[in-house]
Automatic annotation (TrEMBL):
SUPFAM superfamilies: HAD-like. This is HAD family hydrolase. It comes from Streptomyces cyaneochromogenes. The keyword Hydrolase applies. GO terms for molecular function: hydrolase activity. It comes from the Bacteria. Keywords: Hydrolase. Coiled coil: none annotated. Transmembrane segments: none annotated.
């Protein structure tokens, strides 16, 4: 039976220059591979060792990139190894099969959102009205499913984030702060639901997952085994559960460690 590995990407397997956390002496820094170019500039990296580990993992398991990115943002990433048959984008709103969104899955998700939470337009209006232009750089709607802001993190009022989270909670939405982005995402829009669907289609009897943000919590809890790095929202809140391992590594070396753990668990083929 196949092993399914559903992993978040940004700040879990791939890292921007600002998130690399290269704290070692320069001469001991790992060699890096650029895996994403945007507007003709390098944007995201992993270590060369991690690239080889991911290639090995793609041969040993059903590897499913699992991201809050839109399809367009995901498709500019050039991961090493075999091209994944499945990918989860827009926090579970789109299930890609050989690079193409499955329309039945997307329709299923849209129906759940309409039934269970406040409409996107209400959330968008609230963000436009309450967020200050002094620290907001961009307002964005992703795939007509959720909203996010790009902010100046050092100017962002902590109280505003807390108040937004309470406001969103009462309307069936959740808030996540990741780097310079604040996400407002409907609660029924989950990575875990999409992971379960891929597991059903592939017949996987063991599911492994990794992630660093609050939007990854449901994914980690739904998997047979999960890992989180030593940075990010989950580390900051000391998020834990019996089948979830908190790793000490931070930055790009955490991505390398996570891939080693995936491979080890895939080869042993057993949950905790």
């Amino acid at each position: 039976m196949p092993v399914l590995v559903a992993s978040d990407l940004d700040r879990t397997l791939i890292y921007s220059a600002a998130a690399l956390a290269l704290t070692m002496p320069d001469a001991r820094a790992p060699r890096l591979l650029c895996v994403e170019v945007h507007e003709s500039r390098p944007l995201s990296y992993m270590t060369e060792t991690a690239a080889q580990l991911l290639t090995d993992l793609g041969d040993a398991a059903v590897f499913v990139p699992t991201t809050t990115r839109t399809r367009k943002q995901y498709q500019r990433i050039n991961l090493p190894g075999p091209a994944p048959k499945y990918a989860i984008c827009a926090n579970g709103g789109h299930l890609l099969v050989d690079g193409v969104s499955d329309p039945e899955w997307n329709a299923h998700v849209q129906a759940r959102l309409a039934e269970q939470c406040a409409p996107l337009a209400e959330v968008q209006d609230h963000l436009m009205a309450s967020a200050s232009p002094a620290w907001v750089r961009k307002h964005r709607i992703a795939e007509d499913l959720f909203a996010y802001l790009v902010v100046e993190r050092e100017l962002l009022p902590e109280e505003w984030v807390k108040e937004l989270a309470v406001w969103a909670e009462n309307r069936g939405w959740t808030v996540s702060l990741q780097g310079r982005k604040i996400y407002a995402v409907p609660k029924p829009l989950t990575k875990s639901a999409a992971m379960h669907e891929v597991a059903r289609r592939t017949g996987a009897d063991l599911t492994l997952a990794a992630g660093d943000s609050l939007l990854d919590a449901d994914l980690l809890l739904a998997a047979d085994r999960g890992w989180r790095p030593g940075h990010g929202e989950l580390a900051d809140t000391e998020f834990t559960a019996p089948a979830i391992s908190a790793l000490p590594e931070r930055g790009v070396l955490a991505g390398e460690r996570i891939l080693r753990e995936f491979l080890k668990a895939t080869r042993t083929g057993a949950p905790l």
